[in-house]
Amino acid sequence: NAGVTQTPKFQVLKTGQSMTLQCAQDMNHNSMYWYRQDPGMGLRLIYYSASEGTTDKGEVPNGYNVSRLNKREFSLRLESAAPSQTSVYFCASSEIVTDTQYFGPGTRLTVL
Amino acid sequence: RKEVEQDPGPFNVPEGATVAFNCTYSNSASQSFFWYRQDCRKEPKLLMSVYSSGNEDGRFTAQLNRASQYISLLIRDSKLSDSATYLCVVNPRNQGGKLIFGQGTELSVKP
Q1: Mapping DSSP to helix (H, G, I), strand (E, B) and coil, where does residue A85 land?
Q2: pLDDT single digits (tens) B15-42
Q3: For chain A, which residues lie within 8 Å of any Cβ of chain B, measuring from their own Cβ?
Q4: What CA–CA distance (Å, rounded) separates A72 from B44?
């Protein structure tokens, strides 16, 4: 099993450009999450999906959209990137019984 | 007040030392508790869950005090490979399954 995979690993954008971060999990988990991590700020939840077909806002959703394409895939879209969105983005999935979250390797995004 | 607060770091200790991390949480309805480990520029990984009775995994011991809303992690006989950031994580249960992460405490184990 690959666990949680994310693409791309690194990305540089110019202000105003758009892009989609991809996430997939092969653990048959119902819930999936997108976080951003900035120095001194810890992990902050952007959006989450408790099950296929549902999505909800987290702590910092502004400037982002998500799509739960199917049970395996959960994508994060930046419609018009801003320098404030420079961060490391982690996708995670979890199993209901133990609440343990498993993280992907992250996408390091720089917006110039 | 932050929902999950941890000891400020960094902790710099010699190999073989015992080190303890503390964490407090504000939501008394919280049901699940975890310690995650994050290596530099890598993803967080589950270190151990924390149970009401306390639990041990090798050199690592986790304790939970519900009355004081306090969680601890004790690392005995520190190794160089223990150098990482340790995240205290709480599932408040009344927030749709979301986890709340502390900001983390950095540990550096020196030879």
Answers
A1: helix
A2: 999 999 999 999 888 888 999 999 988 9
A3: 31, 33, 40-43, 45, 48, 50, 56, 58, 88, 90, 94, 96, 98-106
A4: 20
